[in-house]
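Hi there,

I know you've been waiting on this one. I reran it after we fixed the sequence typo, so this is the corrected version. Both the input and the resulting structure follow.
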Amino acid sequence: MSRAISILILPFIAVVALLAMASIYIVDVREKALVLRFGEVVDVRENPGMGLKVPFIDNVMRYDARILGIPTPPMEVTPLDDRRLVVDAFARWQITDVVQFRRATAAGGIQFAQQRLADIVTNAIRQVLGSVPSTTVLSDDRTPLMNQIRDLARENARDLGVRIIDVRLTRTDLPEQNLTATYARMRAEREREAADEIARGGEAAQRVRAAADRTVVELTSEARKKAEIVRGEADARRNSIYAEAFGRDPEFFAFTRSMTSYERALKGENSSLVIQPEGQFFDYLRTDGADRANPVPVASNAALSVVTGTAAIAAEPEEPLVTGETNREGEPLGEAAGVKLTPMPESLATPPQPESVVPVVPPAN
C-alpha cells in the first residue's frame, strides 16, 4: 500500500517541481526584464532579484541595462566651406524605458536598436558638421561640436526608449584623394618659407661680407696712405741728405752719378751701344775731372807750444761740420738733423802744409 502511494506521489512531486521552476525567474543586476503574456507586457523588472510568472504562458525578455557603445562607420561630410572630410565617431547609449524599447524594436532587440542609433548619430554628425567651417572641425577643441551632436542624437533617439550619453569624434581627416594635393600644397608652403629664410640669411651674410670688405678697403687705404706719407718723408729726408752731401762738391756729385750710370749701362747682357766717344757720357772715361774739383776746405786750429830746446805743433781735433740749412718744411739738414756724414776722402782734403820751425831765442843774461 505504501509502495503504491509512493509511486503516485513521486510523479506529482516532479510535476510540482517542474511547475515551480517554470514559474520562477531571476533578474541579474546587469539586466532589465519584461514579462510578456501572449506578446503583451504584464510586468517590468528593473531591479535585480527573483520574480514569478505563469508557467508555459508568460515569457521573460531580458535586456542589457549597462552603458553600451556603438561605433559609426567612416563617413564623408561637407562642412560649410565645401571642404570634404572623413569622420569617425563613437556613441555611448543606455536603455532607459524597457517598455518603449520593446515596442520600438519588437523582436530585434539590441542589434536592431544599434542599427537605428547608428543612423541617428550619423545624421546628427552630418547636420552639425555641415553648419560649421572645416577649420572648426579640425581644431583641437571640438567639445562644443560633440555636445551639439549628442543633444541632437538624444532628441531623435528618445522614441526608442534609450538615452544617448555621449558622442565622440575619433577621427577627422581629409579623403584619400585629397591627401596628396594637400600634402603637396603643405610641402610647397614649407619650401617657400625655407626659401624665404635662406634668402634672408643670404642677405644678412652679404651685408656682413660687404661691411667686412669695406672695412678691409678702408684699413688698407689708411695703411697705404700712412706708408706713402712715411715713404715720402723718408725720401725727402734722404734727398735732403744727398743734396747736402753732394752739394759740398758738384763735380764729385757728377762723377759719382757718372760712375753709377757706367755700372748700369756697361753690362755684358745689355744691348750694344753706338755712341760717339766725344759725347758727354764719356767725359769721365777721358779724364777724372780733378781739375774741375772744388772741395770744401776743412778748417783746423793749431796751437803752438813752446818747449825748452824744441818746438812742436799740437793740432786740435776737427769739429763736426754744422750747417744752418733747412728743407722746405723748415727741418734742419745735415749734422743738425742728427745725420752723421761720411768723412771726405783724403784725396779731396786740403794738402798738408809744411811744418814751420820757430827758432828758440835763448833768454838774455
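Quick highlight: The two ends are 221 Å apart (CA to CA).

Best,
R. S.
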